[in-house]
Amino acid sequence: MLKEFKAFIMTGNVIDFAVAVILAGAVGLVVNGFVNDIVMPVVGHFAGGMDFASLKVILSEAVADADGNVTTPENAIRWGAWVNTIINLLIVGFVLFLIVKAYNKSKKPKEEEPAAPAGPSEVDLLTEIRDALKK
Fold first, then answer.
1. pLDDT at 1 (0 to 100)
2. Is residue 81 part of a domain?
3. The pLDDT of residue 133 is above 80
4. pLDDT at 12 over 70
5. Does residue 116 fall inside a structural domain?
6. Contact present, 53 and 40 (Cβ < 8 Å)
7. Number of domains the chain is built from
8. β 70-72/75-77 pair status
9. Closest of 58, 108, 50, 48 to residue 84, by C-alpha
């Protein structure tokens, strides 16, 4: 059973998949940092200095006791963070599109094999049989 597992793990598909998952995590972190630290501040600047990550619709305010400790946290729909996530998705999708496009371009075009010569048709074979019977 251990040998079977080793043979399974050492196949190219499993190793390729593992590398792809690790690279996807790294690309995700880079894109997330790019969106949060570069894109969204620029968008916020042109949108009047707002920070999209802090945009929300408050459903119920936070409740604090006399000492200032929060007893019930705020309940809010954080739609600004969702906008950041959608922008992340679009950028990751675009980056993956470029990677796949470059990969497909780098592959050698598959040469088509010449078609096998067509054999005689049924009519030709029946004609040959008829001619052979006539002799």
1. 79
2. yes
3. yes
4. no
5. no
6. yes
7. 1
8. unpaired
9. 50
Q: For residue 68, what are the CA distances in angstroms to 54, 71, 114?
A: 22, 9, 82
Q: What is the pLDDT of residue 118?
A: 74
| pLDDT in the model for residue 51 | 76
Q: What is the pLDDT of residues 91-112, one digit of tens each?
A: 878 877 888 888 888 877 777 7
User: How far is it, in rounded angstroms, from Cα 93 to Cα 113?
Assistant: 35
pLDDT at 6 over 80: no
The first and second tokens of residue 24, run together, are 């996807």
Which tokens sit at 96?
């993956």
- 84: domain range? 2-106
Q: Report the distance separating Cα 35 and Cα 89, nearest Å.
A: 10
81 vs 100: CA distance, rounded Å: 28
- For residue 31, what is the domain's CATH number? 1.10.1200.120
Predicted TM-score (pTM) of the model is 0.53
Tell me how far apart the alpha carbons of residues 98 and 25 are, in angstroms, rounded to a whole number: 17
